Amino acid sequence: MKVRGIIASAFVFAIIALAIGFSSCNRMAPMVHDTEMPPMMAAEIPIGVVVSLTGKDAEPYGLPMQRGFELAREEINMLTDANITFVTADDQSSEEGAIAAVQQLVDQGIPAIVGIAISDYLEDAFPIAQESGVVAFSSVSTAAGLSSIGDYVFRTGLAVDIMVPSGVMATHAGLGYKKVATIYDAEDTYSTSSNDEVRKALEASGVEILTEETFQTGDTDFSMQLTNIMEMAPDALFISALSQEMTQVIIQAGTLGITDSVQLIVPDLTPKEIQDIGDAAEGAIAFTGWTSLSNIPGNQTFIQNYQAKYGIDPEPWAAQSYATLYILANAIAHAQSTDSAGIRDALAQTMNFPTILGDFSFDPNGEAVYDPVVLTVKDGKLQPFETAMPHMMDEMASHGIPIGVVVSLTGKDAEPYGLPMERGFELAREEINMLSDANLTFITVDDMSSEAGAIAAVQELVDQGVPAIVGIAISDYLEDAFPIAQENGVVAFSSVSSAAGLSSIGDYVFRTGLAVDIMVPSGVMATHASLGYEKVATIYDAEDTYSTSSNDEVRKALEASGVEILTEEAFQTGDTDFSAQLTNIMEMAPDALFISALSQEMTQVIIQAGAMGITDSVQLIVPDLTAKEIQDADGAAEGAIAFTGWTSLSNIPSNQAFIQNYQAKYGIEAEPWAAQSYATLYILANAIAHAQSADSAAIRDALAQTMGFSTILGDFSFDPNGEAVYDSVVLIVEDGELQVFE
Fold first, then answer.
1. Residue 40: closest CA among 20, 25, 23
2. What's the chain's Rg over C-alpha atoms?
3. Same domain? 432 vs 544
4. Which of 18, 226, 249, 613 has the fewest CB atoms within 10 Å around its CB?
5. Residue 76 lies in a domain
6. Whether residue 19 is found in the same domain as residue 150
7. What's the rounded Cα separation, in Å, for the pair 106 and 192?
8. What does the alpha-carbon distance between residue 526 and residue 537 come to, in Å, rounded to a whole number?
9. For residue 695, is pLDDT > 80?
10. Are residues 192 and 63 in the same domain?
11. Which of 641, 645, 627, 633 is nearest to 601 (CA)?
12. CB contact burial 74-83 (16+ within 10 A = b; e otherwise)
C-alpha cells in the first residue's frame, strides 16, 4: 500500500484525508488513488475502552494498550476535526471485571468498545456487546474461533490459527526439527488454542510430538513438567502461555539447562519479557504481528512519538492498540455515523488500510489479515529469523510430480479463460523445473466449456491418482466438479473462480482468485468515496453462479454505503439481446451501472449500452474487465471501472519479468487469468516443497499454512477457509487501456 504526499507519517496522512476531507492525496487501499475522502463528523464520538489497569494483567497488557490507544486518540483529534473521547473501564484482570466493564459501557450507550487482551475475558464479555448491537473490537486477543461470537466482533491481533501455522512452517523449514515437546496453560483459552494450532501445524509437517505438558494459571513451579521434557530430549519446545507463567517457564527451563540444547519457540514473546527472563531467553523464537524493526510507513514515527510521550520503547500491545483506534476512526469516517450498525458495516469492508502493522484487512469473519513476523532473540534483542526455502525431495525430483490441469481448451470459455490459464500454468512449470530441482509434469484435460466436461475431467484425474488438480475458471463448473476431488482427498486449486462461498466444499479446496465477498466491498467503497454516486442500477446473469454472487456482494456493499439501487436487471446465460433491460436502466437515469457477468455476455452488455448512449452519462463498473474484453467492446468500454487482483502496471518484484517472459514465449500480452494461473503453480510448488511429499493431505496442510508468500500478485496468504488474501486493485479504462483509478 503506497501513500502519496509529503508528511512524516503516511499512516497519519491516510486518516487526515479521511477525517477532514482536505484535498490531500491518499490511497486508503491500493484501490483508492488520490481521492477525497468523507469528513469525520465534528460531534463528540465516545469510545469505550476496556483494559486491565489493576491486577496481574495490567503491566504486561493493559497499561501498554491504554498508552497505545491514548497516543492514537491525541493524534487523530489534533490532526483532524474529530473529537474522539474515551470512557475507560478497568476489567481488574478478571473475567468478572471484563463482563462488568462491557455491561457498564453498553448501558451508557457507547457505539463501540475497544480493548480486552485476554481471550478468556473476551469469550465471556463480548457476547454482551454482540447481543446489544455494540461494536466490540479487541486489539490484542488471539485465541482461535472467537469471531464466531457474532458480526459486531472484530480483532486486530492475528488469530493463532492464522499466525501459528506460518510460524511453524518457517521455523521447521529453517531448523528442520523432527521431534518436539509442548507446554501450555490448560486453564487459559489463548494458551490451549495456541497449543492446539501448534499441534495441528506440527502434525501437518510430519514432526513427532513427544509430549504435551500442562499446568494451571497461577502455577509457579514447572520443574516436574520441564524435567519430563528434558529427559525426552526434544529438538524444540513450544511454550503457549500468558506473560506471567510463560516468563517463569523460560527462566526455569534455563536453570535446568534445557535452553542449552533445545530450541525454545514462544508465540508473542515481547522485549519486556526477554528483559525479565534474562539469558534464558537467548535464541528463543517468537511469532508476532508487529516489530519495531519494520520500516512500514508510519512505524518509526509511531516509535519516536511513543518514546517521546512515555519515555519507554513501545510494546507490541501498544502498537496493536494504536493501529486499532486508527482502523476504527477510519470506519467511523466512512460510516459518517456513530450508529453501531453503520460502524460495524464499515469495519467489515476494511481492505488494505495502511497501518503500522502493514496493509490491514478483515476477513469475512472479522479476523485481522496482515503479514505476521518470525523473530529470534540475539544478544537480548528480537531480530528477524532467517530461513531458506526447502528443496524438493530427491525421490520427487527424480520421478516427477504429476499435476492435473483442468482448463477449457475448446468451446465458449476457451479464449477468454482456458487458453490464457494453460499458458500461465505452462510458463510457471517451465521456470520452476528449470530453476529448481523440481520435476513437475502436467496431465491436462479439457473441460470443454461445460459443467459435464468439468465433472468428467476431475473424475478422470482423480482416477489417475494425481495428488493435486489446478484450473477451472467458471464457478458453476467448480461447484459441481471440485466435490469429487474433496470426497477423494485430492487437492483442488482453482486459479480463477471467484464466486463467494465455494470454500465450503471442503478443506482440499483452494483458490487464487479473490472471492467477490472480499474484492467487491472494497471496490465499491473506493469508487463510492471518489465518485459519490447516489443511485445506481445493476445487471447480471441470473443463471451463472459467479454473476449472481458478484451482484449479491454489490448489493450488500451499496446498501452498506447508503446508495439507492434503482433496479436489478437480470438475463440468462447465452442471451445476446439486452435492449429491454438496458432501456429500463436508461429511463431510470442512474449515476452508475454495475455489470456482473462472464466474458461473452458482459462484453455484449457493454457494447449495447454504448450503442444506446448509456455510457455517455452513466459510469460503468465491471468487476474483472480485461484488456481483451476492452478491445472487443471497442469504444463502449472507455471510462469503465474494473476491480481486479492483478495488473500489468504493478511493480511487484518479478511481475515485469513475468510479463516479458510471457510476451517472449507467446507473442502476446499477459492476461489476468494467465497471471493468476502462473502464481497458482508457484504457490502449489512451494507447498509441495514444504510438505516434502506428493501426498495430497500433506500438500493440503502445507497450502493451508501459506502466509505472506511472494507472488506476482503480491504477498499471498490463504485465510482459514482456503480463500486468497492479497491486495486488490481498482482500474479504469483510459484511451482504450486499463490505468490506475484516480
1. 20
2. 26
3. no
4. 613
5. yes
6. yes
7. 30
8. 18
9. yes
10. no
11. 633
12. ebbbebbebe
What's the pLDDT band for 61 if we cut at 50, 70, 90?
very high
Q: Are residues 255 and 273 in the same domain?
A: yes
CB-based contact 137:121 (threshold 8 Å): no
User: Helix/strand/coil (H, E, C) string of 343-400?
Assistant: HHHHHHCCCCEEECCEEEEECCCCCEECCCEEEEEECCEEEECCCCCCCCCHHHHHHC
Question: In the prediction, which pLDDT does 435 show?
Answer: 77
- Overall domain count for the chain: 4
**Domain containing residue 602: CATH number:** 3.40.50.2300
* CA distances, 430 to each of 414, 511, 658, 673 (Å): 22, 22, 12, 18
Verify that 457 and 423 share a domain, yes or no: yes
- 240 plus 341 within the same structural domain: no
Asked if 605 and 683 sit in the same domain, the reply is no
State residue 391's pLDDT score.
55
DSSP 3-state of 459: helix
Give the domain range for residue 26. 10-157+293-367
What pTM, to 2 d.p., does this model score?
Answer: 0.65
Mean pLDDT, the chain, whole residue set: 90
Q: Does residue 693 register a pLDDT over 70?
A: yes
Q: Same domain, yes or no, for 187 and 264? A: yes
- pLDDT (0 to 100) of residue 42: 53
Task: Give pLDDT tens digits for 503-545.
Answer: 899 999 999 999 999 899 989 988 998 899 999 999 999 999 9
Decide: 372 and 416 in contact? Cβ < 8 Å. no
Read off the DSSP letter of residue 498. -
Examine the pLDDT at 683 and tell me if it is beyond 90: yes
User: Which tens digit of pLDDT belongs to each residue from 721-736?
Assistant: 999 988 889 999 999 9
Q: How many CB atoms lie within 10 A of CB 575?
A: 16
Q: Rounded to whole angstroms, how far apart are CA atoms 209 and 207?
A: 6
Question: Is 721 within a domain?
Answer: no
